[in-house]
Design brief:
Blueprint: H1 2-8, H2 20-25, H3 27-37, H4 49-62, E1 70-74, H5 80-86, E2 91-96, H6 99-111, E3 117-120, E4 132-137, H7 147-160, E5 161-173, H8 174-178, E6 183-188, H9 190-193, E7 201-209, E8 214-222, E9 227-237, H10 239-248, E10 253-257, E11 271-277
Parallel strand pairs: 1-2, 1-4, 2-3, 4-5, 5-9
Antiparallel strand pairs: 5-11, 6-7, 7-8, 8-9, 10-11
């Protein structure tokens, strides 16, 4: 028991273990995440409904979307952005490895007679010969990737863009990192049964890495017949660090905003967004 608890309390190296597929492809957890996506009143798996409307309106106007434009939404979830942008007449591709979210998105597209190309796969492995005018990665998805994965994604984005095309994504800021502390939680059926339909005991450890500006929330889920570990990694950014990553990725110009709705950039915000152009 002592050794088991010691392992539960152990601190991994930054981005040592990548467990996102376990989070998004487990049938029960994926269904729970879909519920959060579709709760339009909170910023959980997706932004709240009011912000998504503001954001999609700005994206449509700023990038002059309409027929002939091609968009890729990496980590599209249940298609909340993809649906709205497809309604402009643009050709939209949504990539996500949550089967339940993609199934929901496809049903919405069918009901609205929208031809959206949804792909169920880990976007780290997604390849295509298509070229896009706009690539989205929204809800700070970029922050969950390791430095190596981020370099790979920027290379992928650059290769998939038409000349003059743009990547739009948002990230967590250093201001948000400063406001977080290390934390521990334990409970029976932790998070109200989020992790399993059966009985379990859950441990959460939040570890903070000051030099790397990284935080991990490590969940250990102990069930009768198995024990699972899930790691949610988050990279936090100075604005200069983010623009430098895009410069090294081959992008010619970056413009910063406070969010993906085009609000004026502020150093004090907990998140910010970038438009990076090929």
């Amino acid at each position: 028991m002592f050794n088991a608890l010691k392992r539960i309390d152990s601190r991994p190296l930054p981005f040592e273990i990548y467990s996102s597929p376990d989070l998004w492809t487990d049938d029960h957890i994926s269904a729970q995440m879909l519920k959060y996506h579709l709760n339009h009143t909170v910023d959980a798996a997706s932004r709240n409904h009011e912000f998504i409307l503001k954001s999609t309106n700005w994206i449509t106007d700023h990038f002059n979307l309409g027929p002939g434009k091609k968009i890729a939404d990496f980590g599209c979830g249940p298609g909340l952005y993809a649906t709205a942008l497809a309604e402009t007449g643009a050709e939209v591709t949504g990539i996500d490895f949550s089967a339940s979210s993609i199934a929901y998105a496809r049903k919405v597209a069918e009901n609205r007679s929208l031809k959206i190309n949804y792909v169920t796969t880990d976007y780290l492995n997604y390849t295509t010969d298509k070229k896009f005018d706009l690539i989205l990665m929204i809800m700070c998805d970029f922050c969950v990737l390791s430095p190596k994965q981020r370099r790979s994604m920027l290379h992928k984005f650059h290769s998939m863009l038409n000349p003059g095309g743009c990547v739009l994504l948002d990230v967590f800021s250093i201001n948000a990192f400063t406001g977080l502390e290390e934390k521990q939680m334990f409970g029976k059926n932790l998070m109200d049964g989020f992790w399993s339909p059966g009985e379990y005991y859950g441990f959460m450890h939040r570890f903070k890495y000051h030099d790397e500006k990284v935080i991990v929330e490590k969940y250990t889920i102990v069930e009768e017949r198995r024990t699972r570990e899930i790691f949610n990694w988050f990279q936090y950014y100075h604005s200069e660090q983010l623009t430098e990553e895009f410069r090294l990725g081959g992008f010619s110009r970056s413009v910063l905003y406070a969010d993906v709705a085009g609000s004026l950039f502020q150093n004090e915000s907990n998140e910010f967004a970038v438009c990076a152009y090929k």
